[in-house]
Amino acid sequence: MPYKRIIIAVVLSSIFLFPLYMIIINSFKFEQEILNNPAGLPDIITLSNYINIFSNSGELLTKSFINSILFTSFSIIIVLQLSSMLAFAIHFLKYRTQNIIFIFLLLGLILPTPIILIPVFTILKFLNLNNTFIGLLLFFSAYYIPFGTLVFRGFMKNIPKETIEASFVDGASFLVCYFKIVLPLLKPAAASVIIITGTWVWNDFINPLILLGPSKGTTVTVGLYRMVGQYSVNFGELFAFMVLISLPVIIAYLFLQKYFIEGLMAGSGK
């Protein structure tokens, strides 16, 4: 039985890791070798694809990285703060009232973003925020706050009520209890929200493309789209660009994976 599980784990891991393997090895190949043998190891390892990106597409790469870092960072900060405070406030309501509120929040996660994109664009246009960074930032924050609230709510079930009640007995206000007692205990849940929300915002393509436009709203995904020419594609540089834009997400996950797993398991015992 253990061997069967190991074999299944290896097979599934290979399936999921194969695209990453393809991206990495092809980023070190010449163009012709990629076309002839895309899945094989490179005969000669070359760094020309990375050099060409920094020399020919350095402005596009820099602009894409800066925009994506700004969008991702500010979205994470807003979602973390508002969703944790919302979960803390809902925690004191009656159980039936909590369920009604969370059903309402879930409605915002059921529909995929392409379906609500036209209404969102109409609202932003009415507010004169279409084709602006603030408009897209508000959209990201509003769309992912329900997810963050659900994660924090599940983790707050593990916090003993006696701890919160004791702070109120000692004279602490809601804000003092939130910042001094509850917030430090939410680190595992916060790591989950940071990784998942950050990955969603970082990898989002359709929303920056539509709400900002392909030239003004260049993020890493839109920048990857702009690298595909109308009549020709340099696959080596394209794969190298993919490797570079994937590094921040991979590094963030490696640093936060311990808290990430704890956050996903929060409330499972109950």
Helix/strand layout:
Blueprint: H1 2-26, H2 31-36, H3 48-56, H4 58-90, H5 95-110, H6 113-126, H7 133-156, H8 161-169, H9 174-185, H10 187-203, H11 206-211, H12 220-226, H13 235-264
Question: What report would you give on this structure?
Answer:
The protein has 270 residues and is mainly α. Helices cover 77% and strands 0% of the residues. It is built from 13 helices and no strands. The chain starts with a helix and ends in a 6-residue tail after the last helix. The mean pLDDT is 81.
Outline of the structure:
By secondary structure, the chain is mainly alpha-helical. The protein has two domains: 46 residues, no CATH class; 208 residues, MetI-like (MetI-like fold), CATH 1.10.3720.10.
Shape: globular
> Helical proportion?
over 70%
Order of helices and strands: HHHHHHHHHHHHH
The CATH superfamily of the largest domain turns out to be: MetI-like
The count of strands amounts to 0
Structural class: mainly alpha
What is the top-level CATH class of the largest domain?
A: Mainly Alpha
Level-2 CATH architecture of the largest domain: Orthogonal Bundle
Mean pLDDT: 81
Question: How large, in whole angstroms, is the Cα Rg?
Answer: 22 Å
Beta-strand percentage range: under 5%
Our count of helices gives 13
Which runs of at least 5 residues are low in confidence (pLDDT < 50)? Answer: none
Instruction: Report the biggest beta sheet as strand number plus sense, adding barrel if it closes.
Output: none
Amino- and carboxy-terminal Cα gap: 29 Å
Number of domains: 2
The name of the CATH topology of the largest domain is: MetI-like fold
